[in-house]
Amino acid sequence: MSIKKSKMDTNPVIPLTESAIINDNIYRVFFQESKDMILFSSPQLKILDINQAGLALLGYSSKEEFLVLSNLVNIYHNPKNMENWKQLMEKQGYVKEFEATIVKKNGNLIAALQTSCIIKDSAGKPDVYASVIRDVTESMRNKMHVHKMNVDLIDSLYTLRKNQPKLIQQEKLASIGQLAAGIAHELNNPIGFISSNFTSLRSYISIIKKYIQYYESETSRVINGDIPEVKDLLENLDKYKEREKLDYIFTDLDDLVGESMEGIHRITEIVRSLRNFSRIDNESEIEQYDINEAFESTLTVAKNEIKYVAEVEKEFSQLPSAECIGSEINQVLLNIIVNAAQSIKSQHREDKGLIKIKTYADDEYVYCEISDDGPGIPKEIIGKIYDPFFTTKEAGKGTGLGLSISYDIIVHKHKGDLSAESSIGKGTTFNIRIPIKWKSQKRY
Amino acid sequence: MESTGKVLFVDDEINILKSIKRGFLHAPFEVFTAESAEDGLRILEEKNIDIVVTDYRMPDIDGFQFLKIVKERFPEVNRVILSGFIEKSVAVESLTRGLASTYILKPWLNEDVEEKINHILGMRKVLKSKKLLNVINQIENLPNLSNIYQEFMDAVNDEKSMDTIAKIIQKDPSISTKVLQVANSAFYGVKHCTSIKQAAITLGLDTLQDILLTISIINTMKWNTDQVTNLQEIFLHAFIMNTHLPQLYRIAPEAHYYKNFPSVGLTYDVGKIILLQYFPDRYTSVREHLENHPDQGFYESEKELGFQEISHQEIGAFFLDYWNLPEIFVETALYHHIPGHSSTQYRDIIDLVHYINKLIYILSRVEDIDRVDPTQLKPNYLSERTAKETIISIRKKLRKHIFLDMS
């Protein structure tokens, strides 16, 4: 063997000082004493030699015992693994830190890094494959541990990500409610004095009108009189009245005030509904709640979603108040009503759809039925509608959380029931059942 | 036209005050306005104000503090909140602490506010009428309600510990002994409550509050043994009322108020207690009239005997007002025989008191319970079944006793 001809040595040769003359003996001693396993084989993979560290690592007591294995393939756990190494050797003439799995004498496995080079004979033909094999089992084990922890981390990150939109959605709904209620409160003062002022204005106007009527009836008697100055003056007043269209103004004033009052009344209703809907005055508290009232304020809030799409038919029975968290019940009703409106809208139909809302009660529960005549829900997916993230709306339109949150609120928190029946082409009916007495152990 | 009263509006927004002045330009009462609590207090000093209507959210002194000051310095003045921003808990607290008699939400309707003010002024007129005062003035020393009840209510509102609450009652040995007597009597079916704390735990704070209010009222007066039978009957009826009122009111549509006033059923007939104590002759004459006219009620007999203007309603309401109990107590006592006269806000409660009172009265006189028709008298929202159950339950309770030892 002539190691000096090694091709592996592509690095510049370090000049050796005279005092350290390298002879073959030094290489031999290094081979024997190295604490890394060194192994020589033929290009046909016949094992030629192994050092002491190698024998110790693999658990053989003598070189003879080891050499019985004769072929390199016997120390690889997986022949495929060895095949890869061999191919690399033939292709690039060396292998650096190849990940090999080596079998010990007792059958245990070692994770190893194998660095190998080819030693050629004087004719330049591959003569010997030389490998340094380092045991990295321990560090691999650590690495695996770290890896497992990483996997766990990624797992929990995924769970977090999965739940985040739900949390955000709940948070969002809550803060939308607060914002709405905040605005509603700010509007109360101006609406208060505007509406009060309009009421006063109406009464002022009627007083002024009566006064003018009285004035005119009194002066009309004078018109027939003889005093020319007075006659002129009254004629001028009549002309003025005609020019400024006072007759029209007087008849229109009532309409003007009436229409404005109606507008104010509508704003008042909207503000009142917002306040009721958000239940900010009574947040997250169990209260005696009138479910019919809940529908009314929810319908006002959802009006914009419904009004061009569907008619709403209400069939409300007289209900006892139910002990529930009003803001959450409103959220559920809003979800289901808006879903109904949107499903009708998705049909792009000519006529308006119909949303029917029915309420009734027995001794224990308040029942609500919300049905639409929309497209209906296919049998295959009706079981999935309460799954988080399940949505039939196009991407970005729905979170797929509305019904899942609704289910949570009605079934888990309120110990009621939420179910859906649907037939394709006919529509969908949601049934809600809310206990009249608060049942859950938890006081939220 | 003579003014029916003086009403002061307090709000930090001048536009509100101006709109109110315009709105009540032709109202029968006189309107004063103040832009701040300080201004309001100054006007209260100078003018003889009947009602203060205040905003809740104001800079410096807010509505809650303002009402506290007014209650302390001008206890005669009726207090109302008119606000857009008011959390329910605050509103309820103002009502239960007796800081306000009612609250009105902004935006308001002038006619609603006017109706409420007229109603309050009307009640004040009755309670301060010469005829009533002439009757009241015959009582030498007006009975004063012990502070213990108010202290107890405040402690409950502040969510103080059971020990603290029990200690308040124990301060007065006479009251605490009697509270324990009632707690152990057959009506509640609990025996061997040996301490106030134990009574509070077994019966609940609401019931303890009821008993305390009852005892505090009885304790304002001295009783001799021949009055005790009548007194026990009045209180048995009161306790029955107070048990059934919340049960039925819960079924009423839009039941908002009662939850916060659990003792309101106890005091509706307090006028009878006053009559029994201070006007025994009149009480006896009404009872005798009743014996001879089994188809009549107490109020009808009073009317026939010429007491209709100052009946036990007015007398009871006067004392509840004098003892600073919340408006709902006063109104319930004043109108329980004529619920149509009550304000819209308490109308449904007073209707129910009227109904239950009729049942108690009939059931304590009729032998055969089947002769009582459950469909009669009942409010529409009550089912026949509920009415029937109520009748049976009242009948049972009428046979029980409330133990009161007056010695």
Plain-language structure description:
The complex is a heterodimer of chains A (444) and B (407). By secondary structure, chain A is an alpha+beta fold. Chain A folds into 3 domains: 138 residues, PAS domain (Beta-Lactamase); 116 residues; 161 residues, 2-Layer Sandwich (Heat Shock Protein 90). Chain A is built from 12 helices and 12 strands. In chain A, the strands form 3 sheets. Chain A has a 5-stranded antiparallel β-sheet, with helices on both faces. In chain A, strands 7-9-10-12-11 form a 5-stranded mixed β-sheet. In chain A, helix 7 crosses helix 8, helix 8 crosses helix 10 and helix 10 packs antiparallel against helix 12. The two termini of chain A are 84 Å apart. The N terminus of chain A is likely disordered. With 407 residues, chain B is mostly helical. Chain B folds into 2 domains: 123 residues, 3-Layer(aba) Sandwich (Rossmann fold), CATH 3.40.50; 252 residues, Hypothetical protein af1432, CATH 1.10.3210. Chain B has 19 helices and 5 strands. A 5-stranded parallel β-sheet of chain B has the order 2-1-3-4-5, sandwiched between helices. Chain B is globular. The mean pLDDT of chain B is 86. At the A-B interface, helix 5 of A face helix 1 of B.
